[in-house]
């Protein structure tokens, strides 16, 4: 074993740092640093910059415009971009759909969709969950009936993240009714501008309309938008989920959150001394840091063990559980650090419409909304309870 | 020992429960908030008519209660439906200080609070004070026969809705001395007072209030010069009890919603409450809420005890409520899945209020440290 970075890896880190310093607009990174709300254009602008450098698709093959980085490079890139407060890349096209198309799509589909993900022409969203099908995803009811060379889709998806910005949605739909519920599912790509698609926003507990309900009313989808074989969608869906989970672990986000927390705690006076001198607060902060140091290595160990371009199997559930627990704990500490200044709800400040004195330190207005928003981490991508069940079955063989 | 409520308090609780059950729910509160109003003035008047505001004061002050158990009964019910009306800041904090320190003419305001026709607010916290009660930088300087007030107060509960403020200011001593702090009655409309209203995360209202050369008379002072700290601590103890009891009500509401959801929501063909992974955690939530209730009973029963005993209970209870509050919030949301994250669903209000209660009058870390210090003393 050798924990040190090679010369090459150190050079790569420098290269990423220089790139960030020269390119990432402070207008955007300040929003991320302060937990303010990003608009669609912020994400698009940053994605375009990365794409121009060939760094947008970290784990795609070079042949399709990807960077084809190994696990260590990806981790270095994630650490540096998070610490520099770069916006989170929208994962739906880049790290969810693309691996599925690469593994199960036709060459035609790859040529058609992958370049448009890179160029930002398409913004994808994920149509898995339905009102009656959350953890029990295979219970989904949205139907697609083959009619000539079109599928006709009817039903409803929900909790669709950033669906309001998207022009394409990948959906799990039921194509066969009288079989085992996992066996009748297909993976369909739907242009959201097709007649019959309606998007309705859902406001979440932090006041943001981050997710949506999406309704399909006799939506006609050409057969060439089917991925893989009809009725085999469940296999592709699960394959995608392992990629999604590995992504949610978010070690880089935790690194950045810890750095912010330490800074805030050092500059917040509590009981006549800095908060990081409060033994209870300091102990909790140290505990998270200790866990995070180990988590970084757990993440690398698991991700490196997976084949190139692939996601780990049941181990991805482990990363998701531990990673989300740490991220949530960090938001809880940041909330407490803000003290009474966590109380005002200032949407104008969070949306950047009002930059005047936010009643307290600049990091405070987002502390409580972020704490609430990040409760989602243990719910989506398969709730943590479901991940535990997966580990119990697949690893412990219980 | 007797863990039953007296007949009068049981009646008060039943009456309040009935009234709130008929008049207050999540939809009504959402409409109210959407209208931009900071609270429902009619509800406040009706609470007054029911004697709820009177229950915050002793008979000497024209009320008919004022003890720890009166606060407990009222605030648990208010918390159970999630009211945002100005009761704790007005009647318990500011009203409590008037009752403790006011002279006969100043106390006339208490009658108006009990009647629900005026709202008071305590302007005490400052940008740098965090949870330290004695850290007062606002100054009150003698100028001829007058007093001149200068400083900034933050997170004033219902500050912008108040007609009269109780304002703390330093007449002498260093910036965090307990001695030297005085309280003054200041009309919000007085020259030199600027108030910026804001909504809080839990839909209650707060304000930042600046005092710029505000001129007061000697007769505006509550009690003796420089000696208000003890009364501030007592009023804060009472207000801490109030929000802790409110938290228990909110916990019960969150628990009821979650248990109902565990029974109704089906996944994998069965109600999710059949999964032992959730059952056991819901049981832990139940146990911790019982602990929270006991902690509140402990504080209520020791509210009139000598200072050190009372304050140990204040810190013990507030610490425990903060910990259990976070557990209830996080577990209730988690066990609901996506629905638990939505603003529209009633749980969101209880989750936000429970979380913000941790930020009022000292959070878990503050009170853990304070408990240790008080225990060593
Ligand atoms: C902010 C947010 C964004 C989302 N974005 C998307 C998106 O873009 N696209 C998309 O398709 N979906 C999305 N989701 C949906 C997400 O995947 C689901 O919420 C998740 O799968 C849980 O389903 P559910 O909400 O129906 O909860 P339920 O499945 O009803 O679960 C409720 C509770 O029961 C528990 N539970 C269920 N079954 C079991 C069991 N067998 N054993 C033990 N416990 C169990 C769960 O863990 C949870 O705690 C998003 C959700 C959120 C909150
Ligand atoms: C120090 C000690 C003193 C004792 N004294 C007495 C005594 O005086 N008289 C007497 O009669 N017995 C006594 N016992 C026995 C005790 O009651 C049993 O150990 C206990 O009932 C558990 O049974 P078990 O050891 O067979 O474990 P098991 O029942 O095999 O349980 C093993 C594990 O599985 C868990 N488990 C089992 N069923 C479930 C389920 N349905 N859901 C979730 N988890 C489950 C258990 O919680 C435990 O963690 C004593 C045991 C100990 C350790």
Assembly type of the shown chains? Answer: heterodimer
Q: Mind telling me which CATH architecture of the largest domain in chain B this is?
A: Up-down Bundle
Largest interface: A-B, 52 and 51 residues
Structural class of chain A: alpha+beta
| Coarse shape of chain A | globular
**Low-pLDDT ranges of chain A:** none
What gap, in angstroms, lies between the N and C termini of chain B?
A: 28 Å
Q: Biggest β-sheet of chain A, characterized?
A: 4 strands, mixed
In spatial order, strands of the major sheet of chain A run: 1-4-5-8
- Would you report the number of β strands of chain B? 10
Per CATH, the class of the largest domain in chain B reads: Mainly Alpha
Can you describe this structure?
Chain A is α+β, with helices and mostly antiparallel strands and 398 residues long. Chain A is 46% helix and 14% strand. Chain A has three domains: 7-89, Orthogonal Bundle (Butyryl-Coa Dehydrogenase, subunit A, domain 1); 124-233, Butyryl-CoA Dehydrogenase, subunit A, domain 2, CATH 2.40.110; 245-394, Butyryl-CoA Dehydrogenase, subunit A, domain 3, CATH 1.20.140.10. Chain A has helices spanning 7-23, 26-33, 40-53, 71-83, 91-104, 107-119, 233-248, 251-267, 279-305, 315-337, 347-350, 367-373, 384-394; strands at residues 124-127, 143-147, 150-157, 168-174, 185-191, 197-202, 211-222, 226-227, 269-270, 273-274. Chain A has a four-stranded mixed sheet with strand order 1-4-5-8. In chain A, α1 packs parallel to α4, α5 crosses α7 (233-248) and α8 runs parallel beside α10 (315-337). A four-stranded mixed sheet of chain B has the order 1-4-5-8. In chain B, strands 2-3-7-6 form a four-stranded antiparallel sheet, with no helix packed on it. In chain B, β6 and β7 form a beta hairpin. The radius of gyration of chain B is 21 Å and the shape is globular. Classes of the chains: A alpha+beta (398), B alpha+beta (377). Chains A and B meet through β9, α9, α10, α12 and α13 of A and β6, β9, α9, α10 and α11 of B. One flavin-adenine dinucleotide sits between chains A (125-129, 134-135, 159-161, 210-211, 376, 379-380, 382-383, 385-386, 389) and B (265, 267-268, 272, 275, 277-278, 334-335, 337-338, 341).
């Amino acid at each position: 074993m050798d924990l040190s970075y090679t010369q090459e890896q150190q050079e790569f880190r420098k290269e990423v740092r220089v790139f960030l310093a020269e390119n990432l607009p402070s207008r955007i990174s300040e929003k991320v640093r302060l937990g303010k709300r990003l608009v669609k254009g912020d994400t698009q602008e940053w994605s375009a910059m990365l794409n121009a450098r060939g760094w947008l698709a970290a784990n795609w093959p070079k042949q399709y415009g990807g960077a084809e980085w190994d696990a260590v490079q990806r981790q270095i890139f994630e650490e540096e971009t998070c610490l520099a407060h770069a916006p989170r890349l929208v994962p739906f096209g880049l790290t969810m759909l693309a691996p599925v198309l690469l593994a199960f799509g036709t060459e035609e589909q790859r040529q058609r969709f992958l370049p448009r993900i890179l160029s930002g022409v398409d913004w994808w969203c994920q149509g898995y969950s339905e009102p009656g099908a959350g953890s029990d995803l295979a219970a989904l009811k949205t139907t697609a009936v083959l009619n000539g060379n079109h599928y006709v889709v009817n039903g409803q998806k929900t909790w669709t993240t950033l669906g309001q910005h998207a022009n394409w949605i990948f959906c799990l739909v039921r194509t066969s009714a009288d079989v085992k519920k996992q066996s009748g599912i297909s993976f369909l790509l739907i242009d959201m501008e097709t007649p019959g698609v309606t998007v309705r926003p859902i406001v979440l507990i932090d006041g943001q309309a981050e997710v949506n309900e999406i309704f399909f009313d006799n939506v006609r989808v050409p057969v060439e938008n089917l991925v893989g074989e009809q009725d085999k969608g469940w296999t592709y869906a699960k394959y995608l989920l392992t990629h999604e989970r590995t992504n949610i672990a978010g070690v880089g986000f935790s690194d950045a959150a810890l750095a912010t927390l330490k800074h805030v705690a050092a500059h917040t006076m509590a009981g006549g001394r800095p908060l990081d001198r409060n033994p209870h607060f300091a102990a909790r902060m140290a505990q998270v840091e200790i866990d995070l140091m180990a988590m970084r290595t757990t993440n690398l160990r698991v991700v490196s063990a997976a084949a190139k371009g692939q996601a780990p199997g049941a181990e991805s559930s482990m990363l998701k559980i531990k990673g989300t627990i740490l991220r949530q704990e960090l938001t809880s500490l940041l909330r407490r650090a803000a003290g009474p200044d966590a109380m005002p709800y200032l949407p104008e400040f969070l949306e950047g419409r009002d930059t005047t004195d936010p009643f307290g330190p600049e990091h405070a207005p987002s502390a409580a909304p972020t704490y609430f928003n990040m409760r989602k981490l243990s719910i989506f991508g398969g709730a943590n309870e479901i991940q535990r069940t997966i580990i119990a079955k697949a690893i412990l063989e219980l | 020992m007797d863990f039953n409520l007296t007949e009068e308090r049981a009646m008060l609780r039943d009456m309040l429960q009935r009234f709130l059950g008929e008049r207050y729910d999540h939809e009504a509160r959402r409409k109210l908030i959407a209208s931009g109003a900071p609270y429902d003035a009619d509800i406040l008047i009706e609470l007054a008519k029911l004697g709820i505001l009177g229950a915050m004061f002793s008979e000497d002050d024209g009320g008919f209660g004022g003890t720890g158990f009166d606060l407990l009964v009222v605030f648990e019910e208010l918390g159970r439906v999630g009211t945002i009306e100005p009761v704790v800041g007005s009647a318990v904090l500011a009203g409590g200080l008037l009752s403790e320190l006011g002279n006969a003419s100043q106390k006339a305001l208490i009658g108006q609070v009990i009647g629900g026709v005026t709202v008071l607010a305590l302007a005490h916290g400052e940008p740098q004070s965090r949870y330290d009660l004695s850290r007062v930088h606002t100054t009150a300087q003698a100028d001829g026969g007058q007093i001149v007030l200068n400083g900034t107060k933050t997170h004033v509960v219902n500050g912008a809705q108040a007609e009269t403020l109780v304002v703390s200011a330093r007449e002498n001593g260093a910036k965090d001395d307990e001695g030297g702090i005085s309280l003054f009655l200041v009309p919000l409309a007085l020259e030199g007072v600027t108030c910026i209203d804001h909504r809080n995360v839990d839909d209650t209202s707060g304000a930042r209030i600046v005092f710029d050369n505000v001129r007061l008379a000697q007769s505006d002072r509550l009690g003796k010069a420089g000696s208000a700290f003890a009364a501030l601590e007592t009023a804060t103890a009472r207000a801490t009890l109030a929000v802790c009891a409110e938290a228990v009500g909110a916990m019960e509401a969150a628990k009821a919603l979650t248990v109902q959801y565990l029974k109704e929501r089906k996944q994998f063909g069965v109600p999710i409450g059949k999964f032992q992974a959730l059952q056991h955690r819901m049981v832990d939530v139940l146990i911790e809420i019982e602990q929270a209730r006991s902690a509140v009973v402990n504080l209520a029963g020791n509210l009139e005890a000598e200072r050190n005993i009372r304050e140990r209970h204040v810190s013990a209870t507030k610490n425990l409520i903060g910990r259990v509050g976070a557990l209830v919030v996080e577990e209730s949301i988690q066990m609901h899945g996506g629905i638990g994250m939505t603003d529209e669903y009633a749980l969101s209000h209880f989750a936000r209020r429970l979380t913000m209660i941790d930020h009022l009058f000292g959070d878990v870390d503050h009170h853990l440290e304070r408990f240790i210090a008080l225990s060593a003393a």
